[in-house]
Amino acid sequence: MISVGEQIPEFKVFCSVPGIGPQSAAQLLGELGDIRRFDKASQLNAYVGTDLKHYQSGQTQYQDHINKRGNSHARSLMYIIVGNMIRQQRIAPNHVVDFYYKLKKQPIHPKKDKVARVACINKTLKCLYTMVMAGNDSRYLYSDSKSQNKSRK
Hints:
Blueprint: H1 2-5, H2 9-15, H3 22-32, H4 41-48, E1 52-53, E2 56-57, E3 60-61, E4 65-66, H5 72-87, H6 95-104, H7 113-134, H8 142-152
Antiparallel strand pairs: 1-4, 2-3
Domain Transposase IS116/IS110/IS902 C-terminal: 13-89
Organism: Weissella paramesenteroides ATCC 33313
Pfam family, one: Transposase_20
């Protein structure tokens, strides 16, 4: 699976993101297919099923939930990838992990773990889409990010 994935240009872009290894990148390519077929990153989020469903009836507004109409395998794979990013934050911190902790430590309404992870899935998919469309790899300065990570504690 990895040897087939290495022939696709998006494989290199996916592997450049901290938390996405060759196995995860190959699986993600298999589940998402050609990302260039989507016109916007929001369409990619809808394909995975992490877009928000808003329900309102009269004066009553209900809490937003994810749609879950998309590809369940891609959604669970992205959940694992975000978990990998959070677990290896000391080795390879990135902006997705910073966003996760920002959501978890909000002063008024801190988000629960799964809510914050789904928000990170959306952010990661948007970043992947942008990088693939622009043809850029992810570039992180690990030495600078490590000093910022220590100040977070």
